[in-house]
Design brief:
The protein has 6 helices and 15 strands. The chain has 315 residues and is of the alpha+beta class. A hairpin with a 2-residue loop joins strand 5 and strand 6. The radius of gyration is 26 Å and the shape is globular. The N and C termini lie far apart (63 Å).
Length: 315
Protein backbone atom coordinates (compact mmCIF):
# COMPACT_ATOMS: atom_id res chain seq x y z
CA UNK A 1 0.00 0.00 0.00
CA UNK A 2 1.33 3.42 -0.91
CA UNK A 3 1.44 5.83 2.03
CA UNK A 4 0.19 9.33 1.48
CA UNK A 5 1.77 12.27 3.27
CA UNK A 6 -1.16 12.56 5.68
CA UNK A 7 -1.13 8.83 6.46
CA UNK A 8 2.63 8.85 7.14
CA UNK A 9 2.26 11.87 9.45
CA UNK A 10 -0.49 10.08 11.36
CA UNK A 11 1.61 6.94 11.84
CA UNK A 12 4.70 8.88 12.90
CA UNK A 13 2.69 10.87 15.42
CA UNK A 14 1.83 7.63 17.23
CA UNK A 15 5.46 6.58 17.70
CA UNK A 16 6.94 7.51 21.09
CA UNK A 17 10.52 7.29 22.26
CA UNK A 18 11.45 5.23 25.30
CA UNK A 19 13.95 7.96 26.19
CA UNK A 20 12.96 10.29 29.02
CA UNK A 21 15.00 13.49 29.20
CA UNK A 22 15.93 14.29 32.79
CA UNK A 23 17.54 17.32 34.41
CA UNK A 24 21.30 17.54 34.88
CA UNK A 25 22.45 17.68 38.50
CA UNK A 26 25.74 18.23 40.26
CA UNK A 27 26.91 16.39 43.36
CA UNK A 28 25.53 16.99 46.84
CA UNK A 29 27.54 17.65 49.99
CA UNK A 30 27.68 14.84 52.57
CA UNK A 31 25.38 15.10 55.59
CA UNK A 32 28.45 14.78 57.82
CA UNK A 33 29.27 18.43 57.14
CA UNK A 34 26.88 19.62 59.85
CA UNK A 35 26.12 18.47 63.38
CA UNK A 36 22.86 16.53 63.37
CA UNK A 37 20.74 17.46 66.39
CA UNK A 38 17.51 15.86 65.19
CA UNK A 39 17.23 13.95 68.46
CA UNK A 40 16.40 17.01 70.58
CA UNK A 41 13.05 16.91 72.39
CA UNK A 42 9.75 18.54 71.63
CA UNK A 43 9.29 22.09 70.41
CA UNK A 44 10.93 24.15 67.69
CA UNK A 45 13.85 25.73 69.57
CA UNK A 46 16.89 24.05 71.09
CA UNK A 47 18.97 25.84 73.76
CA UNK A 48 22.63 24.84 74.08
CA UNK A 49 24.89 25.93 76.94
CA UNK A 50 28.39 27.20 76.24
CA UNK A 51 31.38 27.53 78.58
CA UNK A 52 33.47 30.70 78.72
CA UNK A 53 37.26 30.86 78.77
CA UNK A 54 39.24 30.44 81.98
CA UNK A 55 41.72 33.08 83.15
CA UNK A 56 44.40 31.92 85.59
CA UNK A 57 45.27 34.02 88.64
CA UNK A 58 48.61 34.77 90.21
CA UNK A 59 48.87 32.69 93.40
CA UNK A 60 50.90 33.35 96.56
CA UNK A 61 51.44 31.63 99.87
CA UNK A 62 48.74 32.34 102.51
CA UNK A 63 46.73 34.35 99.98
CA UNK A 64 43.32 33.03 98.95
CA UNK A 65 42.37 32.96 95.32
CA UNK A 66 39.30 34.77 94.08
CA UNK A 67 36.38 32.43 93.45
CA UNK A 68 34.63 33.28 90.22
CA UNK A 69 31.31 31.96 88.94
CA UNK A 70 31.33 29.70 85.92
CA UNK A 71 31.08 31.82 82.80
CA UNK A 72 28.34 30.42 80.65
CA UNK A 73 26.45 31.44 77.57
CA UNK A 74 23.73 30.08 75.37
CA UNK A 75 23.12 29.56 71.69
CA UNK A 76 19.75 28.71 70.20
CA UNK A 77 18.71 26.64 67.25
CA UNK A 78 15.27 26.84 65.64
CA UNK A 79 13.27 24.86 63.11
CA UNK A 80 12.54 27.52 60.49
CA UNK A 81 12.01 25.80 57.14
CA UNK A 82 8.71 24.22 56.07
CA UNK A 83 8.71 23.12 52.43
CA UNK A 84 6.72 20.77 50.25
CA UNK A 85 5.92 19.54 46.77
CA UNK A 86 2.55 18.57 45.29
CA UNK A 87 1.61 17.17 41.87
CA UNK A 88 -1.02 15.06 40.19
CA UNK A 89 -1.61 12.62 37.32
CA UNK A 90 -4.92 12.72 35.47
CA UNK A 91 -6.79 9.68 34.21
CA UNK A 92 -6.53 11.09 30.67
CA UNK A 93 -2.74 11.04 30.89
CA UNK A 94 -2.74 7.46 32.16
CA UNK A 95 -5.06 6.33 29.36
CA UNK A 96 -3.47 8.22 26.48
CA UNK A 97 0.15 8.58 27.51
CA UNK A 98 3.05 6.16 27.22
CA UNK A 99 5.69 5.03 29.70
CA UNK A 100 3.63 6.58 32.51
CA UNK A 101 5.20 4.55 35.31
CA UNK A 102 8.65 5.75 34.38
CA UNK A 103 7.46 9.34 34.13
CA UNK A 104 5.95 9.09 37.61
CA UNK A 105 9.20 7.67 39.01
CA UNK A 106 11.26 10.45 37.39
CA UNK A 107 8.87 13.13 38.70
CA UNK A 108 9.13 11.77 42.23
CA UNK A 109 12.92 11.68 41.91
CA UNK A 110 13.00 15.32 40.77
CA UNK A 111 10.92 16.34 43.78
CA UNK A 112 13.33 14.61 46.14
CA UNK A 113 16.29 16.18 44.40
CA UNK A 114 14.77 19.67 44.66
CA UNK A 115 14.40 19.21 48.42
CA UNK A 116 18.00 18.04 48.75
CA UNK A 117 19.25 21.09 46.86
CA UNK A 118 17.12 23.43 48.98
CA UNK A 119 18.45 21.77 52.15
CA UNK A 120 22.06 22.20 51.03
CA UNK A 121 21.48 25.79 49.89
CA UNK A 122 20.06 26.67 53.31
CA UNK A 123 23.02 24.97 55.01
CA UNK A 124 25.54 27.11 53.14
CA UNK A 125 23.39 30.24 53.51
CA UNK A 126 23.20 29.82 57.29
CA UNK A 127 26.92 30.29 57.69
CA UNK A 128 27.17 33.04 55.09
CA UNK A 129 24.41 35.18 56.61
CA UNK A 130 26.39 35.53 59.83
CA UNK A 131 29.11 37.36 57.91
CA UNK A 132 26.90 39.26 55.47
CA UNK A 133 24.72 40.74 58.22
CA UNK A 134 27.61 42.75 59.68
CA UNK A 135 30.56 44.50 58.08
CA UNK A 136 34.04 43.91 59.41
CA UNK A 137 36.78 41.28 59.47
CA UNK A 138 35.28 39.08 62.24
CA UNK A 139 38.62 38.80 63.99
CA UNK A 140 39.27 35.90 66.33
CA UNK A 141 42.48 36.17 68.33
CA UNK A 142 43.41 39.09 66.08
CA UNK A 143 43.06 37.34 62.72
CA UNK A 144 40.16 37.81 60.27
CA UNK A 145 37.68 35.05 59.48
CA UNK A 146 36.05 37.19 56.79
CA UNK A 147 38.12 38.26 53.80
CA UNK A 148 36.85 40.23 50.81
CA UNK A 149 39.18 39.72 47.87
CA UNK A 150 41.31 42.75 47.06
CA UNK A 151 42.84 41.06 44.02
CA UNK A 152 42.34 42.48 40.52
CA UNK A 153 38.67 41.98 39.58
CA UNK A 154 38.15 40.52 43.09
CA UNK A 155 39.25 37.05 41.98
CA UNK A 156 40.33 34.27 44.32
CA UNK A 157 43.98 33.89 45.23
CA UNK A 158 46.11 31.18 46.82
CA UNK A 159 47.01 33.79 49.44
CA UNK A 160 43.43 33.52 50.67
CA UNK A 161 43.99 29.85 51.48
CA UNK A 162 47.11 30.78 53.44
CA UNK A 163 45.41 33.65 55.29
CA UNK A 164 42.45 31.49 56.28
CA UNK A 165 44.78 28.72 57.41
CA UNK A 166 46.61 31.16 59.68
CA UNK A 167 43.27 32.43 61.06
CA UNK A 168 42.19 28.87 61.89
CA UNK A 169 45.58 28.04 63.42
CA UNK A 170 45.41 31.15 65.63
CA UNK A 171 41.90 30.13 66.71
CA UNK A 172 43.26 26.71 67.80
CA UNK A 173 41.13 24.92 65.23
CA UNK A 174 42.21 21.28 64.66
CA UNK A 175 44.18 20.71 61.47
CA UNK A 176 42.08 17.67 60.63
CA UNK A 177 38.79 18.05 58.82
CA UNK A 178 39.38 21.45 57.25
CA UNK A 179 37.37 22.00 54.06
CA UNK A 180 36.95 24.88 51.63
CA UNK A 181 33.67 24.96 49.68
CA UNK A 182 34.24 27.24 46.71
CA UNK A 183 32.35 28.37 43.62
CA UNK A 184 33.33 26.78 40.26
CA UNK A 185 34.58 30.25 39.28
CA UNK A 186 37.25 29.84 41.95
CA UNK A 187 38.24 26.52 40.44
CA UNK A 188 38.68 28.30 37.12
CA UNK A 189 40.97 30.86 38.78
CA UNK A 190 43.15 28.15 40.29
CA UNK A 191 43.22 26.16 37.05
CA UNK A 192 44.63 29.22 35.26
CA UNK A 193 47.67 29.14 37.53
CA UNK A 194 48.93 26.10 35.60
CA UNK A 195 50.09 26.70 32.03
CA UNK A 196 51.29 24.40 29.26
CA UNK A 197 54.03 26.69 27.97
CA UNK A 198 56.73 25.07 30.10
CA UNK A 199 57.52 21.79 31.83
CA UNK A 200 54.58 20.71 33.93
CA UNK A 201 54.96 18.91 37.27
CA UNK A 202 52.79 15.86 38.07
CA UNK A 203 50.72 18.15 40.31
CA UNK A 204 50.11 20.58 37.46
CA UNK A 205 49.49 17.76 35.01
CA UNK A 206 46.70 16.46 37.21
CA UNK A 207 45.02 19.88 37.18
CA UNK A 208 45.38 20.20 33.40
CA UNK A 209 43.91 16.76 32.79
CA UNK A 210 41.16 16.66 35.39
CA UNK A 211 40.52 20.23 36.52
CA UNK A 212 40.88 21.21 40.13
CA UNK A 213 37.67 19.68 41.45
CA UNK A 214 34.98 17.33 40.22
CA UNK A 215 31.46 17.72 41.50
CA UNK A 216 31.59 17.69 45.27
CA UNK A 217 34.36 15.15 45.74
CA UNK A 218 37.71 15.76 47.38
CA UNK A 219 40.29 15.78 44.59
CA UNK A 220 43.35 17.37 46.15
CA UNK A 221 44.52 19.27 49.20
CA UNK A 222 46.17 22.70 49.24
CA UNK A 223 47.65 24.34 52.34
CA UNK A 224 45.70 21.94 54.53
CA UNK A 225 42.33 22.62 52.84
CA UNK A 226 40.34 19.96 51.06
CA UNK A 227 38.75 21.89 48.18
CA UNK A 228 35.19 21.20 47.03
CA UNK A 229 33.11 23.08 44.45
CA UNK A 230 29.45 23.96 44.83
CA UNK A 231 26.93 25.93 42.78
CA UNK A 232 24.82 26.64 45.85
CA UNK A 233 27.02 29.07 47.73
CA UNK A 234 25.31 32.25 48.92
CA UNK A 235 25.68 35.36 46.75
CA UNK A 236 25.05 38.60 48.66
CA UNK A 237 23.63 41.33 46.42
CA UNK A 238 24.54 44.26 48.64
CA UNK A 239 28.11 45.44 49.16
CA UNK A 240 30.13 43.60 51.79
CA UNK A 241 33.30 44.81 53.45
CA UNK A 242 35.92 43.28 55.69
CA UNK A 243 37.00 46.71 56.88
CA UNK A 244 39.33 47.42 53.96
CA UNK A 245 37.72 46.05 50.78
CA UNK A 246 34.09 46.17 49.60
CA UNK A 247 32.36 43.99 47.01
CA UNK A 248 28.73 43.83 45.87
CA UNK A 249 27.25 40.66 44.42
CA UNK A 250 30.16 38.53 45.60
CA UNK A 251 29.98 34.79 46.21
CA UNK A 252 30.73 33.69 49.77
CA UNK A 253 33.16 30.77 49.66
CA UNK A 254 32.91 28.92 52.97
CA UNK A 255 35.74 27.49 55.08
CA UNK A 256 34.98 25.05 57.89
CA UNK A 257 36.41 22.45 60.20
CA UNK A 258 34.17 19.37 60.34
CA UNK A 259 36.45 17.03 62.28
CA UNK A 260 33.71 16.16 64.80
CA UNK A 261 30.49 17.48 66.33
CA UNK A 262 32.43 19.78 68.68
CA UNK A 263 34.19 21.54 65.81
CA UNK A 264 31.45 21.65 63.18
CA UNK A 265 30.30 25.28 62.96
CA UNK A 266 26.74 24.55 61.81
CA UNK A 267 24.10 22.28 63.31
CA UNK A 268 20.99 21.05 61.56
CA UNK A 269 17.94 18.97 62.29
CA UNK A 270 14.97 17.41 60.56
CA UNK A 271 11.83 17.99 62.60
CA UNK A 272 9.84 16.19 59.94
CA UNK A 273 11.70 13.99 57.53
CA UNK A 274 10.42 14.15 53.93
CA UNK A 275 7.21 12.18 53.81
CA UNK A 276 5.22 11.44 50.66
CA UNK A 277 1.50 10.75 50.66
CA UNK A 278 -0.98 10.05 47.87
CA UNK A 279 -4.73 9.91 47.46
CA UNK A 280 -7.41 9.58 44.81
CA UNK A 281 -9.38 12.71 43.85
CA UNK A 282 -12.48 11.20 42.24
CA UNK A 283 -14.09 14.59 41.60
CA UNK A 284 -11.16 15.68 39.41
CA UNK A 285 -10.38 12.18 38.11
CA UNK A 286 -6.75 12.24 39.10
CA UNK A 287 -4.21 10.80 41.55
CA UNK A 288 -2.61 13.41 43.79
CA UNK A 289 0.77 13.20 45.49
CA UNK A 290 2.20 15.50 48.18
CA UNK A 291 5.46 15.68 50.12
CA UNK A 292 6.26 17.90 53.12
CA UNK A 293 9.32 18.40 55.32
CA UNK A 294 10.43 20.61 58.22
CA UNK A 295 14.01 21.35 59.17
CA UNK A 296 16.34 24.07 60.40
CA UNK A 297 19.98 25.15 60.65
CA UNK A 298 21.89 27.20 63.19
CA UNK A 299 25.46 28.32 63.88
CA UNK A 300 26.95 26.75 66.99
CA UNK A 301 30.42 28.28 66.82
CA UNK A 302 32.26 30.94 64.80
CA UNK A 303 35.89 30.06 65.43
CA UNK A 304 35.80 27.00 63.16
CA UNK A 305 34.27 28.86 60.21
CA UNK A 306 35.32 31.58 57.79
CA UNK A 307 34.46 33.08 54.43
CA UNK A 308 36.32 34.54 51.46
CA UNK A 309 34.13 36.78 49.31
CA UNK A 310 35.10 36.77 45.63
CA UNK A 311 33.67 37.81 42.29
CA UNK A 312 30.79 35.63 41.09
CA UNK A 313 31.87 36.03 37.43
CA UNK A 314 35.57 36.95 37.15
CA UNK A 315 38.34 34.36 37.02
Amino acid sequence: MQLTTNTRAFIESEIYSDFVLTNLHDGLLPESFYRNVSDFGVGETLHIKTIGTVTLQEAAEDTPLIYNPIETGEITFAITEYVGDAWYVTDDLREEGTDIDRLLAERASEGTRALQEKFETDFLKTGALIYSATNGPFNINGFPHKIVSAETNNVFSLSHLIAMRIAFDKANVPAEGRIAIVDPIVEGTINKLVTITHDVTPFGQNILENGFARGNRFIMNLYGWSIITSNRLYVHAAAQTDGTTSLAGGVMNMFMCIADDQTKPIMGAWRRMPKSEGERNKDRARDEHVMRARYGFGVQRMDTMGTVVTSATNY
